[in-house]
Amino acid sequence: MEVHPGQRNTPSPSRSSSPSLCSPQKSPSTTFLEQDCFCVKENNMADISGQSDRGSGGIVISDDWPGYSLDLFSYPAHYSGDLNSVIIPHGVIMDRTERLARNIMDDLWDHDIVVLCVLKGGYQFCADLVDRIKDLSHNSTQTIAMRVHFIRLKSYLNDKSTEDLHIVGAEDLSFLAGKNVLIVEAIVGTGKTMKTLLKHVESFKPKLIKVAGLLVKRVPCNSACLPDYVGFEIPNRFVVGYALDYNEYFRDLNHICVISETGKKKYMI
Ligand code: HPA
Ligand code: MG
């Protein structure tokens, strides 16, 4: 479980031990698991058999998934008209997070870890993931001692990624030397941000780095990184909620939703 500079730890059998920083994004197989209303497809057979989530790119939400009508859920009235649909309800996020916590526990239970929460978007996922790992540590011989540290990245203006990636509060991460680090990110888009962050973290010579990402966007970019633990693979659309923002709005929304054109205009800067 050691990581050497320039090499990510890759425990799952389906991941390559390529010396690159990131695993290339796998394209989903053609196996579909169409459920009554939550239209998902899984991208490997092992997931469908229910035996393992290892090496999975997460629950795949297909491009033609229209999402649930907002009328089926409750959400803050101040966002009325600003959203098109709910693509991942809060309860589903929580259930998937519980499973990711289980996978992390299985891999890292005898390690002390430093959780590196990537703000601002990652705060909710990180808090819930850490809570679930804590739950698993209680009344069990498997425990993970966790310290939590926060760094802040900023690269989006409106719904567009800017070239500038600012890492705020990451100046001195020298305390990571020799440590096991779990980076917790809400969303991985092009993967450029993740690559930059990984390079930065690796320069402080941690012993091991793992990445948990709640959402991975299907973007047509080969350089995309796949986190070690993925919640959902989603279409290449701008999503908000569960701490993901559009110009700082919508963090106070529990579900992951697609913003409407009205919403974009209303909060545009
Ligand atoms: N929503 C909010 N923040 C983001 C997104 C998104 O879809 N992609 C990258 N950062
Ligand atoms: Mg943002």
From TrEMBL:
InterPro entries: HGPRT, Hxn_phspho_trans, PRTase-like, PRTase_dom. Its EC number is 2.4.2.8. Residues 11-29 have a biased composition (Low complexity). It comes from Cynoglossus semilaevis (Tongue sole). This is Hypoxanthine phosphoribosyltransferase. It is an enzyme of class 2 (transferase). Pathway: Purine metabolism; IMP biosynthesis via salvage pathway; IMP from hypoxanthine: step 1/1. Its main location: cytoplasm.
